[in-house]
Specification:
Family (chain A): Belongs to the universal ribosomal protein uS4 family.
Keywords (chain A): Coiled coil, Ribonucleoprotein, Ribosomal protein, RNA-binding, rRNA-binding
Largest sheet of chain B: 2 strands, parallel
Pfam families (chain A): S4 (PF01479)
InterPro entries (chain A): Ribosomal_uS4 (IPR022801), S4_RNA-bd (IPR002942), S4_RNA-bd_sf (IPR036986)
Largest interface: A-B, 100 and 93 residues
Distance between the termini of chain B: 48 Å
Structural class of chain A: mainly alpha
Largest sheet of chain A: 5 strands, antiparallel
Structural class of chain B: mainly alpha
Oligomer: heterodimer
Helix content of chain A: 40-55%
GO biological process, one term (chain A): ribosomal small subunit biogenesis
Strand content of chain A: 5-15%
Strand order of the largest sheet of chain B: 1-2
């Protein structure tokens, strides 16, 4: 495997999600066979296929893994099996009479009706059964490898990265740490990758290490600059909304949490305060342009005082007292927020959101009404306010599940990386639960009429030649 | 490359809402191939713009009440039907809105690798369907094979879904953060098998459930003359290929479906079929128990345990012939003279072959 995997002059398809790879895929053709000897054709096919399928497996290892018997299945129809004992296929002149079922299927096909599951064998347009694409299964033993399976389950952006995850100990097989990328999964094995690593691998890149914004569109060029700018603006607005709204209401929710978990442990109090600092920082970042210096100072003072409390806490202060101070800080933060000038908030919609947020907060927590906006509830359109509150709580739920956090190694809120959708598919031999970033290797990949389960970018001819290359030594 | 990325390749930068976004779905100019003669899309627009095709629930209910020919049950039945029709329509409209007027993907649009016509991105289970499978098996306690047959999901997949869901619930209970954002984004990019309760068509079969593996001994073509008058069945054919090979209806993962269908063809009614099924399940269970008991008896007979001061020593009869021709038989026991273990060599990575 060369250090630079994508060479535009000598294109090779690799197991990764890079844009170079996508470009190479888009112009991939079956290599011309004219003016080439059979050996040359096989050589080209084999080198193309190997560059994709087994860059991390040595040739000798692979030739030992290669198996000329390719696995396949035929799906049976239980109704057919119940009705016939098989003698109908040997009747007539020996090739079998046409059963009423087959006849019906043929009629349906003629009438242009879609294929049904009971037409046991998939048929081509000319009525003959679909061929089983065996050549595309040539590299099926490699799909058993742990690193490949991780990539196929969409847990990493390339096989190389999947290897790294395994080697670095982020991967478990059946709940036990597995550090060998070449581990051959057995049917029923469950592998899981650390969710944070998966989010990093599949998430959008950060602009810089200390920001949370993505650099998507950095390569857009002049053509899309307008759109790009709009995009960025829209995104920033969205984030502004989220974080501002977060300012106004998340604290109410968190406070509730804090109140509920009050006496339990010091960890919660600490976490809450860390959160507070982060939020204060966010206020600064979000509305730096329009925020007056005084307000900024106030916020900085706020975060410093939180820090001070934390250090005090570390030196052994009572938990209850700390929680009181947390409450105090929360109200202080809310007050600071209300004092923010309207134009410092990114958009009108934001302030709307905030109003509804305060409405929601007041609905949820009438006790905490240091906020002047809460004191005069909007009675005439209560319904709209409630609707807004519902919407907002849903949005907040989403925001809390996918928060803005500059400390993460990926752009937040999390979004898929560029060009991921063109490569996103999960083969049937894996069952993946994305929420816990785990997957089960159900069975070995198989071919069935019309369909091969080993994903390979090459056509049947190329794979047939590659298969023949490895067959040579058997 | 940059020209391509700014031109036809631009479509791939972000996922297409409500659809998959594969190379195979676009033409050379970067246009969605299925938009060319977009009859489906036009239809969708018409459906959306047409006035509410279904009458209002209140009006219909009132009319039913006034109609004296209807009994109370009829009214309930009709109300139920109206409810289902409404839910179906809502689901359709939601689906169309999500696709933004684009037609559904054709099979050719699901090719991530346009050259490989033998591969396409196949649907995965939607979140609703996974939840339903979990509820059916764990909470309602149905057995895996009947759930698999009902929902058209492979038996092993049902088991895997339950296993993964259990862990997910455990994480939720522990308060461990789930990768929800990732999950949502990925499931939007993939084709999914939906589960739409309360509609005309709640269950979409996910995959063929009775896959018959092609047995290696059936690969060679055999010329086997049989007389014309002979009824040459599956079982006979299997015996020709290999004396131990079972016929197809016994080798499929859910042979119970064949039995059920056979009983149906015999003209048994539902109660009789259920009774037979229960009887069959019971005998299968008994057989398994007998087997287990016999195994235990065999172990008791052949294995001796000698309690030591710190360890118990288990003795068992072995056969020295198991080592095979090369002396490295899989089930062979012990060290062989002149046969060094390769895995003891320096520099050989000892990758485990299984993890329990």
């Amino acid at each position: 495997m060369p250090r630079k995997p994508h060479n535009l002059k000598r294109p090779r398809i690799r197991q990764d999600w890079r844009k170079e790879n996508l470009y190479n895929l888009s112009r991939l053709t079956t290599p011309p066979a004219a003016n080439k000897t059979f050996f040359q054709q096989k050589w080209t096919a084999k080198s193309l296929a190997r560059a994709y399928h087994s860059p991390y497996v040595r040739e000798g290892t692979w030739t030992r893994m290669f198996d000329r018997r390719l696995p396949s299945v035929v799906s049976m129809d239980h109704r057919y099996l119940a009705k016939y004992d098989g003698s109908e296929q040997a009747s007539g002149r020996g090739a079998g009479l046409e059963t009423p079922m087959q006849e019906q299927a043929r009629r349906r096909r003629r009438a242009g009706e879609p294929f049904r599951a009971e037409d046991a064998v998939a048929k081509r347009a000319d009525g003959r059964p679909e061929k089983t694409p065996y050549p595309q299964m040539t590299f099926h033993p490699l799909e058993r490898r742990l690193d490949t399976a991780i990539w196929r389950a969409l847990f990493s952006s390339s096989v190389k990265q999947a290897r790294q995850f395994v080697v670095h100990g982020w991967v478990k097989v059946n709940g036990k740490k597995m550090i060998y990328p070449g581990y051959q999964l057995n049917p029923g094995d469950m592998f899981s990758v650390e969710p944070e690593r998966v989010m990093f691998a599949t998430g959008a890149k950060k602009k810089s290490s200390d920001s949370h914004v993505t650099d998507h569109g950095a390569f857009g060029g002049e053509v899309e600059e307008g759109e790009e700018a709009e995009d960025v603006e829209a995104r920033e607005e969205g984030e502004g909304e989220e974080s501002e709204a977060g300012m106004a209401t998340i604290e109410s929710a968190e406070e509730r949490e804090a109140l509920e978990t009050k006496p339990e442990d010091e960890q919660d109090a600490k976490k809450a305060m860390k959160n507070l600092i982060a939020r204060a920082k966010r206020i600064l970042e979000d509305s730096k342009r329009d925020l007056s210096g005084k307000r900024q100072q106030e916020l900085r003072a706020f975060s410093q005082s939180v820090k001070k409390t934390m250090s005090k806490h570390g030196s052994g202060k009572e938990d209850a007292a700390i929680d009181d101070t947390v409450d105090g800080f929360e109200t202080a933060l809310a007050e600071i927020m209300t004092k923010l000038p309207e134009d410092a908030k990114p958009t009108q919609s934001t302030s709307d959101v905030q109003q509804s947020a305060t409405a929601a907060a007041s609905a949820e927590q009438p006790t905490l009404s240091s906020n002047p906006q809460m004191s005069d509830p909007d009675k005439e359109d209560e319904y709209i306010a409630r609707k807004d509150a519902e919407l907002l709580s849903a949005a907040l739920e989403r925001a809390r599940a996918n928060p803005v956090d500059a400390s993460k190694p990926y752009a937040t809120p999390w979004q898929p990386r560029q060009f991921m959708s063109a490569f996103a598919f999960i083969p049937r031999y894996l069952e993946v639960n994305q929420k816990i970033c785990s997957a089960v290797y159900l069975r070995h990949p198989v071919a069935r009429p019309g369909l091969a389960e080993v994903p390979t970018p090459f056509g049947g001819e190329t794979m047939e030649l590659a298969f023949n290359w490895y067959l040579r030594r058997r | 490359m940059w020209t391509w990325l700014k031109g036809p390749g631009k479509a791939f930068r972000k996922p297409l809402p409500g659809s998959t976004n594969y190379l195979g779905a676009y033409d050379k100019q970067g246009q969605l191939a299925r938009m060319k003669n977009n009859r489906d899309g036009d239809q969708a627009d018409r459906r959306r713009n047409e006035p509410e095709a279904l009458e209002d629930e209140d009006v219909a209910a009132k009319r039913d009440m006034e109609d004296e020919n209807l009994s109370e049950e009829d009214r309930e039945l009709r109300a139920e039907q109206r409810k289902i029709a409404r839910a179906t329509r809502e689901a359709e409209v939601d689906d169309m809105d999500e696709r933004e007027g684009r037609p559904r993907e054709r099979l050719t649009d699901l090719r991530p690798y346009p050259l490989n016509h033998g591969f396409r991105s196949q649907p995965v289970l939607s979140e609703d369907l996974r939840e339903m499978l979990y509820i059916q098996t764990v909470e309602q306690g149905h057995d895996l094979s009947s759930v698999a047959a009902t929902f058209g999901v492979d038996l092993r997949r049902v088991a895997a879904v339950v296993r993964l869901k259990t862990i997910e619930k455990q994480w939720q209970a522990e308060g461990k953060p789930l990768a929800t954002a990732y999950s949502e984004a990925v499931l939007k990019m993939l084709p999914t098998t939906p589960f739409k309760p309360n509609t005309n068509n709640p269950v979409t079969p996910h995959e063929p459930i009775n896959d018959l593996p092609v047995h290696p001994s059936t690969r060679p073509q055999i010329f086997y003359p049989a007389s014309e008058s002979r009824s040459f069945t599956c079982e006979d054919a299997a015996a020709v290929f290999d004396r131990k090979l079972l016929p197809a209806d016994k080798r499929i993962p859910l042979p119970m479906l064949v039995d059920l269908e056979k009983w149906k063809n015999e003209g048994l009614n539902r109660a009789e079929r259920t009774a037979r099924q229960i009887e069959k399940d019971r005998s299968a269970r008994e057989e398994a128990e007998t087997k287990e008991r016999k195994k235990l008896e065999w172990e008791e007979r052949t294995q001796r345990t000698v309690p030591g001061r710190r360890w118990d020593f288990n003795f068992q009869d072995i056969s020295a012939e198991k080592v095979g021709k090369d002396g490295r038989g899989r089930d062979a026991i012990g060290f062989r003279y002149g046969m060094p273990h390769i895995d003891r060599k320096a520099g050989v990575v000892k990758i485990p072959t299984s993890v329990q």
